[in-house]
Design a protein that fits this description.
Largest sheet: 9 strands, mixed
CATH architecture of the largest domain: 2-Layer Sandwich
Number of domains: 2
Radius of gyration: 20 Å
Helix content: 25-40%
CATH topology of the largest domain: Dihydrodipicolinate Reductase, domain 2
Structural class: alpha/beta
Strand order of the largest sheet: 8-7-9-10-6-11-12-13-14
């Protein structure tokens, strides 16, 4: 919200939250904004779009409600707990011809922009291997995250959604032709439909291009630092990677590999947090309606379904 307000792309006109404390913090950032008593009251206001930052189980229903009222939507990830929920939101956005965005924020880091440009330029050659990691040594602090009925899953849908999106987005969304995965909770393997949130996952995706994508993600892994985040792409002519610095959730470098040589392409500082929301707000201010590129959200959700064996 601060990023949107400071960008000048939009005016924060109203806020709504069940928590009085959260509402107070929000209005500190936007003193002129009205405090609505509910989502419906917020949608009654003369606004062009709404940012949804609520627990995952509410995302699809609230997004559809806003879109049906003619409001554009920017939603926290994931857009839905399943591909079916995400599809329902996409159908609503298309029907209403309203702009839909999702906070897949790592696309907007300067480091990832460098990596994606290098991959798409063909400088690495045809990418044949992608390795992605997101370990959060803490795990979420809200109880609903650990109930798959509310969250849609565990670390895969919380963190893995970023990894799957980065891989497919960077490679221009090739079709995933095969998926295998192994999920764990507290060190024990989970069976499909166990009704328990996984805290460690390993998955392999086979792409129509012949490339292999491997990803691992976790909550509370004893990684020796706050976080381990990386996205590496390898071709016959070299490699390129985003990786976090000193366990930070926010500081990233981009590197270009040629054999044993490493060239740094981007490094901190980078004020990327909120950049995805600002991009959406700017597109909304330009009068943009439904963007067919939003269909890609369904493809990412479908891969997550397959990782979960759904």
């Amino acid at each position: 919200m601060r990023a949107i307000a400071e960008s000048g792309a939009a005016v924060v006109s109203a806020v709504a939250d069940p928590s009085a404390e959260m509402t107070a913090q929000a209005t500190e950032l936007a003193p002129a904004a009205k405090s609505a008593t509910s989502l419906d009251a917020l949608l009654d206001e003369d606004i062009d779009g709404v940012v949804i930052a609520t627990p995952t189980a509410l995302h699809a229903e609230q997004a559809i409600r806003a879109l049906s009222r003619g409001k554009a939507v920017f939603c926290q990830k994931p857009l839905g707990r399943t591909a079916a929920e995400v599809r329902a939101v996409l159908d609503a956005a298309r029907s209403a011809n309203r702009l839909l965005g999702v906070d897949l924020s790592y696309r907007f880091t300067e480091a990832m922009r460098h990596v994606s440009r290098l991959v798409r330029s063909g400088d690495l050659g045809r990418v044949y291997a992608v390795e992605l990691t997101f370990h959060n040594a803490y795990g979420p602090d809200k109880r609903w995250f650990y109930d798959p009925a509310l969250s849609g899953g565990g670390c895969v849908i919380d963190l893995g959604v970023h990894l799957v999106d980065l891989a497919l987005w960077t490679l221009d969304f090739p079709t995933v032709v095969g998926t295998s995965s192994k999920l764990f909770a507290k060190g024990s393997p989970l069976s499909v439909g166990a009704g328990q949130a996984e805290d460690y996952a390993l998955a392999t995706l086979e792409l129509e291009t012949g490339a292999i994508v491997q990803l691992t993600c976790s909550w509370r892994l004893p990684a020796g630092r706050d976080a381990v985040i990386s996205a590496a792409f390898y071709g016959p002519n070299g490699g390129a990677a985003l990786r976090n610095v000193n366990g930070s959730f926010y500081d990233f470098v981009a590197e270009h590999y040629r054999g044993t040589a490493c060239e740094t392409l981007a490094s901190p500082p980078d004020a990327w947090f909120g950049r995805a929301a600002v991009d959406w707000a700017a597109a909304l201010a330009s009068g943009n309606g439904f963007d067919p590129a939003a269909e890609r959200y369904v493809e990412v959700a479908a891969v997550l379904d397959r990782i979960y064996g759904r």
